[in-house]
Amino acid sequence: MVVLGLETSCDETSAAVITADGKLQSNVVLSQHDHARYGGVVPELASRAHIRTVGPVVEQALQEAGCSLDQLDAIAVTHGPGLVGSLLVGVNIAKGLAYSRDLALIGVHHLEGHLYSAGIERPLPPPFVALLVSGGHTELIHVRDHGSYEHLGRTLDDAAGEAFDKVARLLDLLPPDQLVAGGRAVSDAAEAGDPQAVKFPRPLPEKKGLDFSFSGLKTAVRTELIRLGGPGSEGVKARTADMAASFQQAVIDVLVRRACDAVESTGIERLSLVGGVAANRLLRESLCHAMDKIGVEFFTPSSILCTDNAAMIAAAGRHRLLTGERSGWDLDAHPRLALPGLQHE
Ligand code: KG4
Ligand code: ZN
To answer: 128-300 has which CATH code?
Structure first.
């Protein structure tokens, strides 16, 4: 089954081709930079940009894969959650292409895509525990089987990526004309800093055992910023790298600790790190080291497959298609959508 994947849930327009044997042949990701001057993604601009770029992005993905529309068997598309206008572009292009070429169609949940991203370059059979850290989510999920998930823990307030984005803004690390991921900006600044310089808290809410909380950490950064003289002051400029490094270390310590707790409490010996924040080099290295120490096999995809991309959507859709599942022509975009097959702890 040759699958074309489409992802347009936020500000990345992406198309990818996975061949019959499950190999990734192409993965074109186009990030929108028009939002930078507004300080965040503007939904209306995002959907307009998807409309302009989705055609060329699909053409390029097919060209790089060396295949034509006629050689496809199916189209997998993100149908939620996300920005509704952006999702609608992908869903309707997918429906149009599938209808015109008589292809199978499958709607994919964006988070299920992230869960499958770690199994694209290297086989990752269930069961495994996934630490999913993105701009909107911080979750520990027990993947019991294909399409069967159990929630182990989640953030009670900000997602890890959201905390990175807010701290990047607080520390004035974002360029005005280019959309750079906040987490990337913080980790670049942290290279020159001392991770032990500022003693930020390591919040570990005890309520259910495996939950996260990042809003206190973000507040601690703000408090330190004020103590040093406020945004833009010489005091803050002199300590920006140290604050970035110390904040990043605090987030990593919490994520590593909870990942260890999750594999210990489930007894599962495989752990994957996925989602945009998984692109963080120090997090990847620290988690790899921690899992190695306790004899757990560690999986994380290449950085390009951590942030939003269509390869992961094609991979997740392919599994559902192979079980015979299909979406109908009534497939719709859902800004809020529960992960199918998810059971809460
Ligand atoms: O998965 P993703 O591309 O989009 C969502 O589904 O949310 O994740 C985006 C998040 C952003 O918060 C961004 O700041 C974060 O991933 N991110 C990083 C890095 N690159 C992207 N966080 C930490 N370190 C990075 N290198
Ligand atoms: Zn995502």
So the answer is: 3.30.420.40
